[in-house]
Design goal:
homodimer; mainly alpha; Arc Repressor Mutant, subunit A; Four Helix Bundle (Hemerythrin (Met), subunit A); 2 domains; three-stranded antiparallel beta sheet; 3 strands; elongated; disordered N terminus; DNA-binding
Chain lengths: ~240, ~240
DNA sequence: CGGTTGAATTGGTTCATACCAAAGGAACCG
DNA sequence: CGGTTCCTTTGGTATGAACCAATTCAACCG
């Protein structure tokens, strides 16, 4: 097919099959280059399908991506049209934000939020919540090989800490981060490298973090979370 | 098919075809009722397809919805599994978060986000966006008495900086902060005290901040935003 | 008993087709 | 000229089939 020569135009932060990605890139490139001008009707799905040599289903998947990003609008019976570039983002949804974030973006915001988040949690977390956090930690330490289970419990662990700050805004921001984490392709890859040894490593670190929180040792807790972040960044850089 | 009797179980926030919605509701109901227990493998897509009397593609669409909402996880070659229910609020909306945040919460998260946000914006903001930011500043400086207009433009100013980081997650988090800011009663009160003199004060500070950003002076920009934050906190404490 | 192999199962992707409903336009009629 | 009708085009939905890749697990072999 004639999709190969497209310059990677539309970053695919979400997992997307190569074929669909290629179609998205092709059409996005034609919009960007002005081949399809603003408010112009682009070729029908059936035409694109035969022109690009892919099935109409595939074309539709690509158009759905472009529509969800606000680049085109579609009207049954009429056609698909190029949208004028919107200036201000009209409140993108959680999943849209998460989908358009790179693993680096993720590490950056985590580096900003997590240290202060932990600091506030140490000070503000009620004893009952610390108990609950310990419960979660126990569940996490019971995991030995099941990477999926570990990641799920890890998520609950972080969420509990975020809630422990007592600041709904921080918890809300961190929800966004967790969503992005879940959708990150690269992060999914990292999970593949969650060997039992690595899981044990994580467990030790989270255990230290929990003990620091439980004993209200702010500085230690912040240090542990910073160390953990640095370690994760190292993995992100040094592994496949 | 046996999909009719499902009680509207799963709110369909996005547009979704009736058939897919019915399958989603059915499976969601079975999870909720415990028919599919936590961590249990639910029937294969092909089995569900024939049991529910719909095509496998349709089942897959439904499963994608459930997966995107975090209710199930899927692994190729293994199967689809029910996720443990996350206890906390099921993704509170922006406005809910904003409504339950105190002015102190607001200042805290701003203190965490804004310095690093400015730092990243100084480094990453493209010249074109800096130009646009200058345009916004000009509009802001044209205001003399209209407090409402000033606050609106101020919001655009911050939003532009957040976008300038190039990090959608930061921009997304900051959207949350701005929403909370808008709804904050106390902040609204403060606006009443936005006298012309005070507006001029703000304009000077934002002008300094902009110049620091435009000349790529990271340290100065961060200092200005910190000063600004401290000043706002002072007002919050010392005024009615 | 431990490791390997290979078939069967499962989700992931693409394709071809059919039919529906909305929109548009041309032909027609008043 | 205005409206109606009817056919065509377009996106929207659903189906069934085929193949791929990851996973599982039982049978097998050393």
């Amino acid at each position: 097919m004639s999709l190969a020569q497209t310059t990677a135009a539309f970053a695919a932060q979400t997992q997307m099959s190569a074929t669909v990605q290629a179609v998205v890139d092709t059409i996005f490139g034609r919009i960007r280059s002005g081949e399809y001008a603003v408010d112009e009707r682009l070729p029908s799905e059936r035409t694109l399908s035969s022109d690009l040599g892919v099935a109409r289903n595939t074309v539709r998947e690509a158009l759905e991506v472009l529509e969800s990003h606000g680049l085109i609008r579609r009207r049954a019976g009429s056609g698909s049209f190029v949208n004028p570039q919107t200036k201000g983002a009209p409140q993108p949804s959680h999943s849209e934000i998460a989908a358009s974030s790179s693993p680096l973006d993720l590490q950056v915001i985590r580096g900003i939020l997590e240290p202060d988040m932990v600091r506030l949690a140490v000070v503000n977390m009620p004893p009952r919540d610390i108990e609950a956090l310990g419960e979660i930690l126990s569940q996490m330490e019971a995991v030995q090989t099941d990477a999926d289970a570990f990641v799920r419990i890890e998520e609950a662990f972080y969420r509990k800490i975020a809630a422990g700050t007592g600041n709904p805004l921080i918890a809300g921001c961190y929800d966004l981060v967790i969503d992005a984490c879940r959708q990150s392709f690269r992060t999914a890859q990292l999970r593949r490298h969650l060997t039992p040894a690595r899981i044990e490593d994580y467990q030790k670190r989270y255990n230290s973090l929990f003990n620091a929180i439980a004993s209200r040792d702010t500085d230690a807790a912040v240090e542990y979370i910073k160390l953990h972040l640095i370690e994760e960044q190292r993995q992100l850089l040094h592994e496949p």
